[in-house]
Inverse folding.
């Protein structure tokens, strides 16, 4: 049986507002709350995706390694932002970025394999989760585009120069 704290936490997350008590309990059964200290890595670029992560408190820097430029910050995830969504997309078989806690961070982690199974067995959960993931991935594409545009604008005089 899932803890009351997990059930209450899940009930307060707007992502899950459409779910009934039984669906919330099913999510709670495959979830846990984790704390990450400032500077702690939640996952590394290239790691195998395992969990979906919802930030509850704190900030997480999402960064990618750019050849000859080093690590570039793409964005900072804040409360209610979703990380690890690539676990739910079968095409992506590894983490596309590194996530590092900027501050002490509390996060809800949901087991990705069990979440996929739950989405398959409960079509409403599956539809809502995948609709939300589509929005998150679209926002990530837009954020990446804006970051690339900014990088090009700042370096347009030396476009072929490898310094970032």
């Amino acid at each position: 049986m899932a803890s009351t704290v997990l059930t209450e936490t899940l009930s307060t997350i707007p992502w899950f507002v459409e779910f009934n008590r039984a669906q919330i309990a099913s999510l709670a059964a495959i979830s846990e709350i984790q704390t990450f200290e400032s500077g702690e890595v939640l996952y590394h670029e290239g790691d195998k995706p395992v969990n979906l992560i919802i930030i509850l408190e704190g900030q997480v820097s999402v960064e990618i390694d750019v050849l000859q430029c080093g690590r570039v910050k793409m964005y900072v995830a804040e409360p209610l932002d979703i990380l690890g969504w690539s676990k739910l997309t079968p095409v992506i078989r590894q983490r596309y970025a590194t996530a590092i806690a900027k501050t002490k961070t509390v996060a809800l982690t949901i087991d990705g394999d069990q979440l996929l199974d739950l989405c398959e067995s409960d079509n409403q959960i599956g539809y809502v989760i995948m609709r939300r993931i589509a929005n998150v991935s679209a926002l990530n594409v837009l954020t990446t585009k804006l970051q690339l545009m900014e990088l090009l604008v700042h370096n347009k005089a030396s476009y072929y120069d490898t310094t970032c």
About this structure: The mean pLDDT is 87. The two ends are 51 Å apart (CA to CA). The longest strand covers residues 70-77.
